[in-house]
Q: What sequence folds into this?
């Protein structure tokens, strides 16, 4: 899952934050930009702006099926995907080898070749 925001005619990686005065997003740029501060010595560079100043705030997530089970892709490496079960049936997911990583969350690494119907969902949150 990832967030991005359109601001000033460009799209940036973003992280939403709820503040006392409403929703803001932290914009992230890989190189130095005017008005952005370095997060570390060599970047990334970040800037917080109110959501109202953004042309859009977008949420992306990759969904898939593994052995017929609907899942969300939460990680990736060369040999496979880290899937989070989205079926809502904890006993069935655990029987398939998903591990409880925190209450209500079940995940498991699976080989790339076993994952089907990969698709990216993009939702406009505002804009």
A:
């Amino acid at each position: 899952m990832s967030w991005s925001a359109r601001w000033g005619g460009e799209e940036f990686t973003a992280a939403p934050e709820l503040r006392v005065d409403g929703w803001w997003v932290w914009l992230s740029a890989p190189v130095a930009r005017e008005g952005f501060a370095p997060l570390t010595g060599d970047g990334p560079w970040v800037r917080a702006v109110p959501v109202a100043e953004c042309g859009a705030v977008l949420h992306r997530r990759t969904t898939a099926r593994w052995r017929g089970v609907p899942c969300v892709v939460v990680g990736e490496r060369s040999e496979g995907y880290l899937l989070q079960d989205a079926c809502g049936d904890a006993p069935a997911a655990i029987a398939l080898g998903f591990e409880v990583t925190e209450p209500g969350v079940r995940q498991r690494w699976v080989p790339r070749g076993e994952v089907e119907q990969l698709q990216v969902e993009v939702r406009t949150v505002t804009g």
Q: What stands out?
A: The mean pLDDT is 93. The longest strand covers residues 115-126.
